[in-house]
Amino acid sequence: MKHLKIFSLAAVAAASLMVLSAGTASADEVTSPAGTTAKEVVWSLVPGTSAKLVNTSGGEIFSCTKVNETFPIASQGPGKSILGTTKFDLENCTFPTKVLKAGGEEINAPAESTTATVKATSESQLTINTGLLGSCVYVVTAGTTIGSINTSSGEFTENEVTEKLSGSAVVCPETTKWIAEWVRTQPNPYIYDNN
Question: Are strands 27-31 and 51-55 parallel, antiparallel or unpaired?
Fold first, then answer.
């Protein structure tokens, strides 16, 4: 009888926990260490790689071998995606390059998933000065899928479509892709909570 009462209490407790869990909203949140909220995430290129702008056939137009991407977190937590505006430090590039407009991004992962999707929430612009051939200005529009993040490691695979803006040199391709492989450098330790 004593074991039956203990089993019954355990079953009631488990059922209550399931009901509470079912009613809890999913939260996308970066913490470091556990229990504290991270203020930003910083990525650097995977060693030995470069960030590249390629044409639709995959031919390289331009690259940078030293790039840091900083994502100051503006919003995160229960029932929210992670939101922020990305900042780039571009160095060792094929041509002089400048970010004209920093774009907003949203990071979101389904509950229990190990992959988060990164989407543009506002337009970003980049200009590449090719010298004698003129400048190319490319834009990533709001709603564009930028890439994906491994929520376990923080590694970021970037692969977004960019479009040429009017006023760019005639030689600039109309549609390109910005591709890069990133490793997370901050925060450390890193926990992506999407439960």
Answer: unpaired
